[in-house]
Amino acid sequence: MAPSSVSEQIAEETGESPRVLRILTNALVGLDLLKKNRQGMYSLTQESAAFLLSKNAGTHAGFFGTITPHLISGWLRLSDIVREGRPTVAVNQEAEGTEFFSQLVENIIPLSYPPAQKLADHLKLAKAKNEIRALDIGAGSGIWGIALTQKSPRVRVTAVDWAGMIPTTKRITQKFGVGARFNYIEGDMLEANFGTGYDIAILGHILHSEGEDRSRQLLRKIFHALRSGGTIAIAEWRVNDDRTKPLASLMFAVQMLVNTEKGDTFSFKEIKNWLEEAGFKKVRKLDAPGPSPLILATKP
Predict the structure, then answer these.
(1) Where are the alpha helices (DSSP H) in 123-228?
(2) pLDDT given for residue 1 in this prediction
(3) Is the pLDDT of residue 2 over 50?
(4) Confidence band (pLDDT; 50, 70, 90) for 233?
C-alpha cells in the first residue's frame, strides 16, 4: 500500500518514525526553515537552502551538527557560572581550547570569508606591485589570510596561533591551494614574536575572547609589528555604547561569559579608544558582510 502522507513517504525513505518526522517537519515550518503548501508538501526556505545544505559554500550545517551541542552544554551550566563568576571550561585557554577551536574554525569559514574578501578589495590588493606582508593573529582556519592571497600573488601571510591549532591552519590553507604562501608562528599571541614590517594585521573575531586587558596589550603589540602606513583590520560582534543592542551581540557576550574567563563584546567607541591609545590613527568603519562592520586603523 502506498504511503498516505508526506511524513510517511519521508519515513519510508529514511527508516524513521512517521510521527517523529511529522512533528519535526511541522516545527521546522514554524521556525521558517521549511515551507508547507496546501497539499502538505514541504520545501526549503531561501535561508535553509542557502545555509543548511552541506554542498553549498556558505553552509552552516557543520556548525549546527558539531559545535552547537558543545555550546548548549555550556549554557546548561549558566546558573553555576553566574554564581562562581567563571566558566566551567575556558576555551580561550590553550589546553582546553585547542580541541574546541580545531572543530570550530572550519565550520565558521562562511562567517569570515565574505568580509575577508571585502577587506581584500578595499585594500586594492589586486593592484599591488610590491610584496604585501599580512599578519593573521589567532588565525584559526586561516581564512582571512586565504582571502587576501586569492586577490594577489604578491601577498604573503604569517599566521599566528597555538601550536595545537597550526596543523588545522596548514591543512585548510593547503585545501585552498595557497599553503605555500603562508608561514606559521606557534604560541600565545601575547608571547609569540611576530617580527616587524607588516603591511596588514588582522584580528578576525579575536578580541571578544581575550577580554579588555589582553586586547589592549595585543593592539599595542600589533602597532609595533606594522610598518608606518600599515593597516589593522578588526572583525567583532559589536554592541552600541549603551549595551542595549543589537541582540545578537548582547547574547554573544553571554556566550563569552559561559566559555571564557574575561571575554565580552565591545562597542566601536571602546575599540577606537584602545586603538588610539596604542598609537593608531584614522580609526574607521568598513561595511562588510557579517555581524558588524569591520574596524580599520592606520599606523602613522
Answers:
(1) 143-151, 166-175, 207-225
(2) 37
(3) no
(4) very high
Q: Which residues contact 152 (CB under 8 A, 6 or more apart)?
A: 120, 125, 126, 128, 132
Cell numbers 608561514: residue = 183
Pairing of strands 182-186, 155-161: parallel
Q: Is pLDDT above 80 for 89? A: no
How many angstroms separate the Cα of 124 from the Cα of each of 57, 156, 215, 253, 274? Answer: 24, 15, 28, 34, 26
Cβ atoms of 201 and 262 closer than 8 Å: no
Cβ pair 124, 99 in contact under 8 A: no
Using an 8 Å Cβ cutoff, are 219 and 234 in contact?
Answer: no
pLDDT 10s digits, 169-184: 999 999 999 999 999 9
Low-confidence winner among 68-72, 164-168, 218-222, 261-265 (lowest mean pLDDT)? 68-72
List the grid coordinates of 5.
Answer: 502522507
Residue 296: which region, alpha, beta or left (left: phi > 0; alpha: psi -120 to 50)?
beta
Q: Which residues pair with 204 in a beta bridge?
A: 235
Q: How far apart are CA 290 and CA 130, in angstroms?
A: 30
Alpha-carbon distances of 81 from 4, 101, 174, 214, rounded to whole Å: 50, 21, 39, 22
**CA-wise closest residue to 61 among 75, 49, 73:** 49
Instruction: Say how far apart CA 207 and CA 236 lie, in whole Å.
Output: 7
